[in-house]
Amino acid sequence: MTVTRRSVLQALAAFSDAEQRETTTTESLRTALGASAGEVESQVDALVACELATVDPDGGIRATITGEELLALDTDELVIVAPAGDDRDT
Predict the structure, then answer these.
(1) pLDDT digits (tens, 9 = 90+) for 38-76
(2) 58, 63, 42, 3 alpha-carbon torsion, rounded to 10°
(3) Which of 34, 38, 61, 89 has its CA 20 to 30 A from that of 49?
(4) In order of start, what are the domains of the chain with their CATH numbers?
């Protein structure tokens, strides 16, 4: 299974809460997605660069309110734009 930014963002939204500042861990995301830590970390880094996720100083990860609102649009073809110079698949 390919881990996409969308699947990571969906998992983040399910396992964290932006308004309550509740976070999750890379390990929880990795387990939920059946992915390697490297795959998850790579996508989390890209989501952070797009301001759709944030990582707290203690390492907790959560979707931002913007990330949650993007998912709430419930589009069939959600596109997450990569930061300039990022050529990874979304």
Answers:
(1) 999 999 999 999 899 999 999 899 999 999 898 888 777
(2) 130
(3) 34
(4) 5-72 (1.10.10.10)
